[in-house]
Each structure stands twice: as structure tokens, then as C-alpha cells.
Design a protein that fits this description.
Elements: H1 6-14, E1 19-25, H2 31-44, E2 49-52, H3 63-74, H4 79-90, E3 98-102, H5 104-110, H6 112-122, E4 126-129, H7 138-146, E5 150-152, E6 154-155, H8 161-170, E7 175-178, H9 191-202, E8 209-212, H10 218-225, E9 230-233, H11 235-243, H12 249-266
Parallel strand pairs: 1-2, 1-9, 2-3, 3-4, 4-5, 6-7, 7-8, 8-9
Length: about 270
């Protein structure tokens, strides 16, 4: 499969290292801080950034990320604002892949082609819409690919093999295995179960497999990294932002990400 953007280049350059993919919500706690927080993630060792698009009904997210969306929405942060933040980030970081993560409604409201054009121009590399199933993804996926954007899909513990095979037809960049049933921020992680499901996914999908939900520290990241290609961490970072002041948030994110990066590299 030919590389389409920075995501493919990033995984190719890892050469066996595990990718670290942190998530934060754009506009949380204030849009003026988002770009600095993105740079803080990179300083800590992030390979790819997942940037949440605030949404009023984030049904796949737990209370921590729901509150982050609410804080961002108070400041009126919408999809076009998020693209503007990515464009600002790109002024000083042309290489770190950025994936937008959110819900389909804002993209549909903007229009697939208009979104894809604007996202590519801003420097976005991929889109993960948690409520767009592969059965309904043809139009969106083809539009994204035409503009060098990777359609990224979630795979759940309950996803049957035939549906994984269908996802494989659309997915580019990487796939995101949700390690737990339920919403983001859940606490119990069964690494043996994760390993079993990742092995099943590998039978159908050649892309890198990232694992998220339930990863909270270096220890769990190291365990998951041993059976996957990438580790995604979100709620724990958003909690760090929530507990910090605007002056300390960036440093606290860098320290936490660096700790997880060190654990991954030591595995």
C-alpha cells in the first residue's frame, strides 16, 4: 500500500518502536492553549497526535472527555476552529501526524469535499469518526483518500471477523482497537484479552494496530505496547489538563507523556 501522508511515513520510521498516540480535545481548557499543548505532547515523545473535535453529544466518551468538550464548547470551538489550530501547529511542526477524532455530524454539516480540502490544507493527516460505520463509509472514505487523508476506524472487542474484513477495505494509516467495552476512561484492562483480539485483527488487516481505552500510565502502556503497534492514551491526559492551571498544563503533559514514552521504549 503506497504511503498517503505523514502517518505512513511515521510508522515506517519507527523501525520496530511502538508508536505513542496521545489524545487531547481541541479548545480545552482554552483555544489559546491548544497549540502549546500539542507541542508539549511532541516534546514528551508523541509520535502522532489525536486531536478531539468538540461535540455536544459525545456518546462514546466518558465523563472526563465529555467535560473537555463542554469546556471547549463554552469558548465556541467548532470544526473550522480546530482546523485553524492545526494550521497554526503546522507553522512550527511540519512532520508530526495529526488525526482529528470526533463525530460525523460536524463533517457532514461542512460537507465531505469542503472538509477534506480544508483539512488537507491545514495539515491534517487522518479522520476518525466514532459514529461512522464501515457500511456507510464509502463516500466519506473515498473523499478523504482523494485528498490524502487517512480514514481511521475503531474496532471493538465485539466486532466480528467479517466486519473487521470490511473495515480493512476502507482503513488507512492505522486502526484503533478499543480494548474495553464501554466509554473512554474505563479502568480495567485485560492484556491477555487484548493480545487475543489484536491477533485476530492481524489476520484481516495489515495496517498498524493501535490500542486505546484503559491505558493510564507507563506500566499499562508497556503491557499493551508488547502486543500492539501503537498505544493511544486520552482520558488520563485530559485529567492532567483538568487538574492543571493554564501555566502548568503544558509542562505536566510533557512529563506524563515522557514517562509513558520511556516505559514503551524500555519494553
Amino acid at each position: 500500500m503506497n504511503p498517503i501522508n505523514r502517518i505512513d511515513t511515521c510508522f515506517a520510521a519507527l523501525a520496530g518502536r511502538k508508536a505513542l498516540i496521545p489524545f487531547i480535545t481541541a479548545g480545552d481548557p482554552h483555544p489559546n492553549l491548544t497549540v502549546a499543548l500539542m507541542h508539549a505532547l511532541v516534546a514528551g515523545g508523541a509520535d502522532i497526535i489525536e486531536l478531539g473535535v468538540p461535540f455536544s453529544d459525545p456518546m462514546a466518551d466518558g465523563p472526563v472527555i465529555q467535560r473537555a468538550s463542554e469546556r471547549a464548547l463554552v469558548h465556541g470551538v467548532g470544526l473550522r476552529d480546530v482546523l485553524g489550530l492545526v494550521a497554526t501547529f503546522r507553522q512550527t511542526n511540519p512532520t508530526t501526524p495529526v488525526v482529528l477524532m470526533g463525530y460525523l455530524n460536524p463533517v457532514e454539516a461542512m460537507g465531505y469535499t469542503a472538509f477534506a480540502q480544508a483539512a488537507h490544507a491545514a495539515g491534517v493527516d487522518g479522520l476518525l469518526t466514532v459514529d461512522c460505520p464501515p457500511e456507510e463509509a464509502d463516500a466519506l472514505s473515498s473523499t478523504l483518500l482523494a485528498h490524502h487523508l487517512a480514514p481511521i476506524f475503531l474496532i471493538a472487542p465485539t466486532t466480528p471477523p467479517e466486519r473487521i474484513a470490511r473495515i480493512a477495505q476502507h482503513a488507512r494509516g492505522y486502526v484503533y482497537y478499543v480494548s474495553l467495552k464501554g466509554v473512554t476512561g474505563a479502568a480495567t484492562l485485560d492484556v491477555a484479552d487484548v493480545a487475543h483480539h489484536v491477533a485476530t485483527i492481524r489476520q484481516h488487516i495489515a495496517l498498524p494496530i493501535g490500542v486505546g481505552f484503559g491505558i493510564r500510565d507507563g506500566q499499562t502502556a508497556r503491557q499493551v505496547g508488547a502486543v500492539s503497534d501503537a498505544v493511544v492514551i486520552g482520558s488520563r491526559l485530559v485529567q492532567e489538563i483538568e487538574a492543571a492551571t493554564p501555566d502548568t498544563a503544558a509542562a505536566r503533559l510533557t512529563a506524563l507523556v515522557a514517562d509513558i514514552r520511556q516505559a514503551l521504549d524500555a519494553a
